[in-house]
UniProtKB/TrEMBL annotation:
Region of interest: Disordered: 1260-1292
MF-aspect GO terms: lipid transporter activity; nutrient reservoir activity; small GTPase binding
Secretion signal, residue range per the UniProt entry: 1-15
InterPro entries: Importin-beta_N (IPR001494), Lipid_transp_b-sht_shell (IPR015819), Lipovitellin_superhlx_dom (IPR011030), Vitellinogen_b-sht_N (IPR015816), Vitellinogen_open_b-sht (IPR015255), Vitellogenin/Apolipophorin (IPR050733), Vitellogenin_N (IPR001747), VWF_type-D (IPR001846)
Recorded GO CC terms: extracellular region
Subcellular location: Secreted
Organism encoding this protein: Caenorhabditis angaria
Lineage, opening ranks: Eukaryota, Metazoa, Ecdysozoa, Nematoda, Chromadorea
Keyword Nucleus: no
Main subcellular localisation: secreted
Domain Importin N-terminal: 552-627
SUPFAM superfamilies: Lipovitellin-phosvitin complex, beta-sheet shell regions (SSF56968), Lipovitellin-phosvitin complex, superhelical domain (SSF48431)
GO annotation (BP), single: intracellular protein transport
Protein name, as recorded: Vitellogenin
Length: 1379
């Protein structure tokens, strides 16, 4: 009897369900929403995640339920979901259509029962508000309920107001209006389109779409900090995302049915390939409208009412747990396993086995899973895990555990890392700290933990890493782009003030320069707005060292975007102050232009440039402005156009050597929304012949995200020439010593040298007495990542003591295992199904290396050494996996699609290095070849996955994965099996026929093996000016041409030869050259002036240090004398029919054959041709051909040179310094260097102030500009006079016009008058032009040529079409009819 009853009940239920599906028109007894009535809807939702191509497999989540609504008074509605079904699928299905539930695998978990809890909301004029949920409901369940009610929101109040408007015409059956609404996906602008259809009994069709470009609030989460790209609207992630609703409604606004289609696209690569996307289909169908059958209970209002926007409480809980470590947030997290310690212990055991067998891609996956679980561990859990790790006492796990603690990056894992820091090596601790620079969830609480440790540690290496990391964490928590979800601010103004005050106090209390630099770099990483005032005081304080002041300027870099105007107000006066050091001014300019200033600031820079007297500052400014003007970055085109206009008003000089420069190389593709930009800069100052600052950086756009200031490396120094001069003077073997060693070389001047110094009263040039100091630094994402100070303690007395270093590297055995995330970014976006999708990209990496290093300095028992021998034997193995996944997140199931790219590198190393530098530098590197069956392994595969989450699981739940493959007719498969020398390449590459599927995400593989044919290979062999290398079938030879300041690279691969010759735009060659004739001198600093030599010798160039090494003298009688060390060399070219007579120490040398070289201990002499002889030593080269002498000196004589060739300090306005070291007029300057030895005479009037023999000449560009400015008006005047005498007829010529920063040339000849003023009749006509940027020098030259010679046809049309950046334009212009 019971069985019959149950059977009848089941049958009735099934019949009722079938009836409900068919009752859409029968059981709807209402035409509007009314109080005391019940409405039932059938809800179906489907969410897919994967490649946004319908025919490809994807991870799917399906939801189905019956929704019951009971309307009460005052627009209140009680609601409940019943018959809820949640299911997932990995099968290949058409994701653009709703699929039947039977194709999915249903999830049967207790957690789904909360979906049946009732809830309530207010529904007025179609707008949903004041949602109330049951006390024991959960956030994820509430969001799903929001997604259902979101389908009912339709703003009929705006429709009514538009219907009643007088402007609305009666015959119009369609209306469009816009409103701001709170929807599930945020508070955004919503566009409505309404169509009233008579054929459906006057029902209405409404269409509603969300404009994601105009949202005041979006509940999204993005972990990676990226700069805002002001000019790049096309790079917005939301441009191709949409949500569209289609409503069928009665005239009284009863919603009969709704269909929603939504798309979220991520990581766009180009117009064809959208890497990952989520697609949602929701439907809501009215199946019953009538009397209430069973009244729902009223919801107790214990909870606060909320709105329709997706609730981010779970995301906030995850964030606050990581930031604070408070247990209450951990309890709210839905991904916290209860048996996580046991789970991690098992994964560590698995990882140990994987490492012992071999480090592979699975090892990297295991590391990522451990990090995922350990992020949910509390202090007790970590204490237990640490005991387990310590008890196992396995070196590889102990090493990796440290990395995992910092990769997890929660407050409790960071605290555990700090506890264990004392047990680790300083290098390990320092490297681990770097992981925290780009912290996922920074907070002031974590910053406080870090600062306590920073203050307690005494190790300099750990101190540096700790303080720099502290600054980065402060910036993440308190900076403008802090990664904190909507909540009360945790970083108040008082907190910022305390942080700034603490760091400023550390700066003021610093005992040495390195500590000051560390304090400033910490302030720079923190990037707090309140730091700008103390930094301004530091940079303007003349008592501070120049490196400190420069670091204060650099410390403003994080404020460039936050408060650009204030930064400009601070830095512009620094740049304009000529009394400030050049290094400080240029640094200020660099930071100033990074703020992208407006015209008022740019105009002041231009004005300063026109009156700039410091050559290096001017050179750097011009080169940086030009680099910005030519920048192709799509994110900076507005500023680039602004600077291009400025650049046109400034005269440029030739690119000379030894000039400070800023260069930029960029390549961008708007189509692919990807590109790169490389910057390099070198700054020279009058204090040093070597660059005071050098910098190289890289940035760019990848996959639509702007990675500005991605990475930067640099070097700055002060007085480093002291050490380099010591090396040149004594040799490297005297500088790098075991113990201290003094130089035994003295200065022993000859008689003539003594006489010369007495006669001319030379005052030695004073060298900079400050200690040498250098700083090498590395920045990552605009954060100071690390820096290495090199100061007088390491360079004492110009010597480097390597006793300690030698002991350290004598014999090192090592085994090391490390883990890292090379990259990790997360973006979470809610979908209309109420479940978020999470885009996660990361590169878990694990490396293991063991080996031995032996270094031996030679000779063994000497105070100095002349070389070294090293033997490096190691076996590194690296595995990295790039995972890009799009996951549908819920507390019960996880499903989605991921693209996996795996790389395993196995490179055994057995290399020997031998170096020597006794006479010249030699280096040889050989390698003992070891077979590598899998030298390199690369794999890619697309995977769909599902995972059921059980909070009580004792083992990490492995997802069910399926590698999806295209059908045979959708892909071409290429098999690779090739031998290239000793390398064997095997693999498979699949090429899809569908253009929307990129090939690099498919199932591909590549394995490179190495089987050497020889036991030993000579990898590299170098001499002073040449390097050659050979490996397998590849040979390369690099030759350095010192005279041409270039290099040539010859390579050969399988008998095919390639050659490359450098043309370096940076041109950092620093060997200065001076040329002198009897009446003209070009100095080392390129000042050209007239100077008439006398019969007496004049000092042309001289080492004016306290221990001079050379002097060069010349007269107008074709004679030259060189004093070098203890030698006197004379050139006499008075006999023009013979080669110059050469004497060395008074002894005439025999005549030389052309090209012949005579060697001496300290120099060599060479006859270049019949009239030219050359003297050459290590630091001085002189060529003399009777009429002209060319002198080239070493850059080490910077600020130590005197004579007619100038002061040599990289500045042209300090050139005329006389023998007594005073800056004088040019005639007194020349007279001070005349050497009268009693055997010659000269007239004093020759050097009078009014003498015409001495004057400064302009450079070539200035002469050309002046000549053109004078010549053009004259030619134009003559032409106008000729034209006035007779009437002319229009001629067909190329027309040139200037439009919007462009110079344009007509593609066809156009009728013109030879003089525009004589055009009497004309007509406007459309003409096609080819245009070039107005900054193009070739275009300017051709424009001048055409306008000067309009009577002659222009012959450069072919070259115009070959120019870079040429574009076609069409303009309406005046065409001559009569002249």
């Amino acid at each position: 009897m019971k069985f019959v009853f149950v059977l009848a009940l089941v049958g009735a239920t099934l019949a009722a369900r079938h009836h409900n599906q068919q009752q859409q028109s029968i059981d709807v007894q209402e035409s509007s929403f009314r109080a005391d009535r019940e409405y039932r809807y059938e809800f179906n939702g489907q969410l897919s995640a994967g490649l946004p191509v319908p025919s490809t497999p994807q991870g799917l989540t399906r939801l189905q339920s019956l929704v019951t609504l009971q309307f009460t008074k005052n627009n209140k509605v009680r609601a409940q979901l019943s018959n809820v079904k949640l299911a997932t699928s990995q099968e290949k299905q058409n994701t653009r259509e709703m699929q039947p539930m039977k194709r999915f695998e249903q999830v049967e978990l207790e957690e789904t029962q909360v979906l049946s809890l009732p809830f309530a909301f207010t529904y007025k004029h179609g707008i949903v508000s004041e949602l109330t949920f049951a006390q024991n409901d959960q956030v994820w369940s509430e969001n799903i309920k929001r997604s259902v009610i979101n389908m009912l929101q339709v703003n009929n109040l705006r429709k009514e107001s538009k219907r009643n408007s007088e402007e609305q015409e009666e015959q119009d059956n369609r209306s469009v209006f816009v409103s701001m609404e709170k929807t599930l996906e945020g508070e955004c602008e919503v566009v409505y389109s309404v169509e009233e259809t008579e054929q459906h009994n006057g029902n209405q069709k409404w269409t509603k779409s969300i404009n994601f470009d105009k949202c005041t609030q979006r509940p999204t989460l993005h972990h990676t900090q990226v700069e805002v790209c002001q000019d790049c609207e096309t790079l917005s992630q939301d441009k191709k995302s949409f949500s569209i609703f289609q409503f069928n409604m009665t005239n009284e606004y009863l919603v009969d049915s709704v269909e929603l289609r939504s798309q979220q696209l991520f990581a766009p690569m180009d117009s064809r390939h959208q890497l990952l996307g989520a697609f949602t289909i929701n439907t809501l169908k009215l199946v019953y409208a009538g009397e209430q059958q069973e009244k729902m209970e009223k919801i107790t209002e214990d909870k606060k009412t909320s709105d329709l926007i997706y609730d981010q409480e779970l995301e906030i809980a995850e964030q606050r747990w990581a930031q604070t470590g408070e247990e209450k947030y951990l309890r709210q997290m839905q991904n916290a396993y209860k048996n996580r310690v046991e789970m991690i212990e098992k994964m560590f055991s698995l990882l140990t086995t994987q490492i012992q067998e071999h480090v592979g891609s699975e090892s990297a996956h295991t590391v990522a899973r451990i990090v995922d679980v350990i992020r949910t561990c509390n202090e007790d859990d970590l204490e237990r895990i640490s005991k387990i790790v310590d008890q196992q006492n396995k070196r590889e796990i102990l090493d990796i555990y440290t990395n995992i603690l910092t990769l997890a990056a929660t407050r409790v894992t960071i605290q555990e890392f700090i506890k264990r820091a004392d047990e680790m090596s300083p290098v390990k601790v320092s490297v681990a700290f770097k992981t925290l620079v780009d912290l996922r969830y920074p907070s002031t609480e974590i910053a406080q933990d870090l600062v306590k440790f920073c203050e307690s540690t005494r190790n300099p290496m750990i101190q540096q890493s700790c303080w720099l990391t502290y600054g980065a964490v402060v910036n993440g928590a308190c900076g403008r782009n802090s990664r904190v979800l909507a909540q009360k601010p945790t970083c108040t103004r008082n907190t910022k003030q305390e942080i700034v005050s603490k760091l400023v106090q550390r700066f003021e209390a610093s005992q040495n320069k390195n500590q000051q630099i560390l304090a400033l770099k910490t302030l720079a990483n923190a990037g707090l707005d309140l730091s700008i005032y103390p930094l301004q005081k530091i940079m303007n304080n003349n008592q501070n060292d120049i490196l400190i002041r420069v670091q204060a300027v650099e410390a403003l870099r994080r404020l460039r975007q936050e408060m650009p105007r204030k930064v400009q107000q601070v830095l512009l006066p620094v740049y304009k102050n000529n009394q400030y050091p050049q290094q400080l001014r240029v640094s200020a300019l660099h930071q100033l232009l990074q703020t992208q200033p407006e015209w008022p600031v740019l105009s002041q820079i231009a004005q300063q440039l026109r009156q700039e007297t410091q050559q290096q500052v001017r050179s750097f400014t011009i080169s940086m402005l030009r680099a910005i003007a030519d920048n192709q970055s799509p994110c900076e085109q507005t500023f680039a156009a602004r600077v291009r206009s400025l650049v046109q008003t400034v005269r440029f000089e030739k690119d000379e050597m030894l000039q400070s420069k800023y260069v930029k190389w960029s390549k961008y593709s708007l189509k692919h929304q990807t590109g790169y930009e490389m910057n390099a800069a070198a700054l020279f100052t009058s204090d040093s012949p070597y660059p005071t600052d050098m910098m190289a950086s890289i940035e760019g756009v990848f996959a639509g995200e702007w990675n500005k200031y991605f990475a930067q490396a640099g070097f700055n120094q002060k007085n480093i020439q002291k050490v380099l001069r010591q090396i040149q003077k004594n040799g490297l073997e005297q500088v790098i010593v075991r113990g201290k060693r003094a130089s035994d070389e003295g200065f022993h001047p000859s008689e003539i040298w003594k006489n010369l110094m007495e006669k001319l009263s030379f005052t030695p040039r004073q060298q900079n007495s400050e200690d040498p100091h250098a700083l090498v630094y590395l920045k990552y994402r605009d954060m100071d990542f690390a820096f290495l100070p090199v100061d007088v303690q390491l360079l004492a007395n110009g010597q480097i003591n390597v006793d300690t270093l030698e002991k350290m590297v004598k014999d090192i055995k090592f085994t090391q295992t490390a883990a890292a995330f090379l990259y990790e970014t997360t973006r979470r976006v809610p979908t209309p199904l109420g479940l978020p999708v999470e885009l996660n990209a990361k590169v878990p990496t694990i490396a293991n290396v063991n080996g031995q290093i032996k270094v031996e300095l030679t000779p063994k028992n000497s105070k100095s050494f002349e070389g070294l021998r090293a033997h490096i034997k190691a076996h590194p193995r690296v595995a990295a996996t790039h995972i890009a996944s799009l996951t549908i997140v819920s507390p019960m199931t996880v499903t989605g699609t991921k693209f996996i790219h795996e790389m395993v590198l196995n490179t055994p190393i057995d290399a020997k290095i031998e170096m020597s530098w006794e006479k010249e530098f030699n280096m040889e590197i050989t390698h003992n070849n070891t077979p590598a069956p899998q030298l390199l392994s690369l794999q890619s595969r697309p995977v769909t996955f599902t995972k059921t989450i059980d909070q009580n699981a004792r083992q990490y739940p492995e997802p069910t994965e399926r590698t999806w493959m295209l059908e045979n007719n959708q892909v071409f498969t290429n098999e690779m099996n090739q031998q290239v020398g000793d390398f064997k390449i095997e693999g498979t590459w699949n090429m899809p026929t569908m253009h929307r599927v990129p090939s690099w995400i498919l199932d591909n593989s590549l394995i490179v093996s190495y089987e050497p044919s020889e036991k030993t290979s000579q990898l590299l062999k170098c001499k002073s000016d040449m390097c050659e290398s050979k490996f397998d079938d590849v040979t390369a030879e690099l030759r350095i041409n010192k005279e041409r300041r270039s290099f040539e690279l010859d390579t050969q691969f399988r008998k095919q030869q390639f050659r490359y010759e450098s043309s370096n735009s940076m041109n950092l060659e620093i060997a200065p050259v001076c040329s002198i004739k009897s009446s003209k001198v070009t100095t080392f600093d390129r000042v050209v002036y007239s100077n008439k030599l006398t019969k007496c010798f004049s000092v042309v160039a001289k080492d004016c240090s306290e221990t001079p090494r050379y002097t060069v003298l010349m007269n107008n009688a074709k004679q030259m004398m060189i004093l070098y060390k203890q030698n006197e060399i004379e050139f006499n070219g008075q006999q023009s029919e013979q080669q110059p007579i050469v004497k060395v120490n008074g002894k005439q040398q025999k005549q030389m054959e052309q090209g012949e070289t005579v060697e001496n201990k300290h120099f060599q002499l060479r006859l270049i041709d019949d009239s030219t002889v050359e003297f050459k030593s290590s630091d001085l080269t002189v060529r003399f051909d009777r009429y002209e002498a060319t002198i080239q000196i070493s850059a080490d004589y910077h600020n130590q040179q005197c004579g007619l060739c100038g002061h040599y300090d990289n500045e042209q306005n300090t050139e005329f310094v006389d023998a007594s070291n005073k800056q004088v007029e040019i005639n007194d300057f020349a007279k001070s260097y005349v050497y009268n030895n009693g055997k010659c005479e000269y007239n004093d009037e020759h050097f009078s102030k009014n003498s015409k023999h001495f004057k400064i000449e302009r450079d070539e560009y200035e002469q050309d500009d002046e000549q053109y400015e004078q010549e053009e008006p004259r030619q134009q005047q003559e032409q106008e006079q000729d034209e006035e005498e007779q009437n002319e007829t229009p001629v067909q010529r190329t027309m040139v016009i200037e439009r919007s920063q462009k110079i344009c040339f007509s593609q066809e000849e156009v009728a013109q008058c030879k003089n525009e003023k004589n055009m009497s009749e004309s007509k406007r006509q459309m003409v096609n032009f080819l245009c070039l940027p107005s900054s193009n020098s070739w275009a300017k030259q051709q424009m001048r040529q055409i306008r000067r010679n309009l009577a002659q046809p222009w012959q450069q049309q072919d070259k115009l079409e070959q120019q870079e950046s040429v574009v076609e334009r069409e303009y309406r212009v005046q065409v001559a009819q009569q002249c």
